[in-house]
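Hi there, hope your week has been kind to you so far. Please have a think about how the structure follows from the sequence. I've dropped the whole record in just underneath, so have a look:

_____
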Amino acid sequence: EPVEYYVNIILNIMDHFSRYGFCYLMKTKQETYQYFVNWLKFIERTQKQKVIRLITNNDTEFTNNKFESMLLKAGIEHENCDLNKLQQNSYIKYRGQTLEAIAKNMMSDSGISEQIWDEAIMCANHVMNNTINLTTGELPFTRWHNRKPNLSYLHTFGTPAWVNIPMELRQNKLYFVGYGANHRLFKFWEQGTTNIYWSANAEFLEHDGLQKFEQESNKKQYNVIVKSPLYNDHKNDSNIDESVQEKTSITENDS
């Protein structure tokens, strides 16, 4: 079944050491607390480390008693961003502005509807995590996972594709808009809707061009499944350099 999103806010979390970022789609700011708690558990489980300092903006979702009590119980030092200190504020704002710029460029180049700007932001986050950071001189992915990524699974945003959808007798005409968890699934958009499909079975027409895709879409095709090469996760994907003793996370909400 397709997933239909109604998203107004994106929670942006960045690890200060690696510049590795996480984005979460939210309907309201009230969801911030639960998303952050889930992220915190994920980090402790996969990285075997604890977050000890958190820098946020001064929005109420980060300064309310419930959120502050949770941080205190977890032993996390909370620092609110001083808007008068440009250097401190830039850590939070720069990444959000860069994500927005990348997403706008991808949508403009591909002609994809702005209805799914949230998916474009998520895809932009994936791209940034696998692009050399000017401050560290390394890929955020490499510093976070302590290994180099295999980027053979990457595709151009908005690429047309034939996608096999379970329970249907033919492939669907969809457009690539992002990556699923652990890169084992791709995300596809159905034109004219806000429906997002997840699938590992797709024939990307990245090199064939849109014109050929439109021609092929007029032909009836049944039970044709072409598996695209996917990213092969390393067994020790959750490991990180043990020499990193401190993790500082920076979060913000982008409306």
In short: Residues 29 and 194 are 21 Å apart (CA to CA). Helices lie at 32-47, 60-63, 65-74, 86-110, 117-129, 140-145, 210-217.
